[in-house]
From TrEMBL:
Gene3D superfamilies: Cupredoxins - blue copper proteins. GO terms for molecular function: copper ion binding; oxidoreductase activity. This is L-ascorbate oxidase homolog. CDD domains: CuRO_1_AAO_like_1 (cd13846). It comes from Dipteronia dyeriana. The keyword Signal applies. The keyword Glycoprotein applies. It comes from the Eukaryota. Belongs to the multicopper oxidase family. InterPro entries: Cu-oxidase-like_N, Cu-oxidase_2nd, Cu-oxidase_C, Cu-oxidase_fam, Cupredoxin, CuRO_1_AAO-like. Residues 1-26 form the signal peptide. Keywords: Glycoprotein, Signal.
Amino acid sequence: MARGRAVMLQLICGVLAVLSVSLVNGDDPYRFYTWTVTYGTLSPLGSPQQVILINGQFPGPRLDVVTNDNIILNLINKLDEPFLLTWNGIKQRKNSWQDGVLGTNCAIPPNSNYTYKFQTKDQIGSFNYFPSTAMHRAAGGYGGLNIYERPRIPIPFPNPDGDFTLLIGDWFKTNHKTLRENLDSGKSLPFPDGVLINGQAHSTFSCDQGKTYMFRISNVGMSTTFNFRIQGHTIKLVEVEGSHTIQNIYDSLDVHVGQSIAVLVTLNQAPKDYYIVASTRFNRQVLTATATLHYTNFQTPVSGPLPAGPPNQFRWSMLQARTYRWNLTASAARPNPQGSFHYGQIIPAKTIVLANSAPLINGKLRYAVNSVSYVNSDTPLKLADYFNIPGVFSWNSIQGAPSSGPSYVATSVMQANHHDFIEVIFQNNENVMQSWHLDGYDFWVVGFGSGQWAQAKRRTYNLVDTLTRHTTQVYPNSWTAIYVSLDNQGMWNMRSAIWERQYLGQQFYLRVWNQVQNLANEYFIPSNALLCGKAVGHHP
């Protein structure tokens, strides 16, 4: 009898799940895609090398969708290794099952497929996707993901006359498997060989004189900040990772690893061609990629020296970052103003301090957070948590503050309460730039500062109009403070966006949990979930 009641309860829950999803998504369009991942041979820096193609394209296809669209994307893996894509900046509301990282998903085996099902719920802006497995990111497989506003939802600027996506990042000529072998042996990656714009060393963007165009710019590289500028033109910042900004005018902008911005450029100069420049920052060697801004119907070629970049100083970059401001009166994905949520009036429930480091563990280079260097399990943490599988991860392996003990490896998970509002301090005591990303969320970047963070530094926070984003930079020997509203239950990856550091352990998972389990908090496991490791034999 008890078993019968349990079966009936499961059936009722299943029906309620279907009804709930249909009620939420019934009026929102569905977009269907089939992507095939293969290897190909291209010469992005002049010499042939193996790259990862999606539907034969490098970079991969651009996803242009609208707020609240439902994405049904069948990914077919024709590589010789397991593969996953993650959707950089997509919040996956109540749905960490679709996040596409090894802590939430089994990688897609070779000659197999997986169908992602997710919604661009309450989001707008410029994002991207990329491979999260191994070092596949070093071979390509990335692409743009742009979320446009729904009808009747105003944007705080006139519709641009055109819209370009620029995927910019450092690039290695060395095969991704060789790079991975070097990291596995305890060696750091070499300095990149060049910078690509949309997978090429040179591109052309044709525009009409007198018109205004949007350029959506993402740093899809592995390791280096770049500075973006256009010869003879200023750029107006209008959006950062889904946040509409105060529309300041700049000569150039720094874009750190994993970040995205959108700018407006008006063609108000003499009709000819102009350089578009992306050059690396904060290294003795400067790598530069150029493209051409072409005024249509005019044939005067680009000329003159490349426009000079800003001072090669961290201080300059930090001061620029502080000028980014939220447009409090503009709507984003919803009609209500962005500033209607008064984040600065909320007292955080707790403070977490995360210190990165580069220890030697067992004689090999690793990267760590609060002395813990993360190692992947063969069972995704989300599956282990759902099926109550013991021995996959440890609750107590990472603490919420730095420790002075020796560094060690662990599959680390930090617990947090659903609906808590928390403060996170990224403390960088190293001499190199850091870039931190949190899946499932955006967060308010309330402060940057040099040296060691202390409670007195809170007096410097912007508690009025700082913007939200999903990836923030942390300058050398400095700190960055963020506020996060933990309103999205799930298992979420907190990681370095600098891929060498992520691969060698500078990451962990944040389990945002509510004891009340229902569809208002989190969706059920997908019926097509891939099972691997200790989850094999369990049933979704």
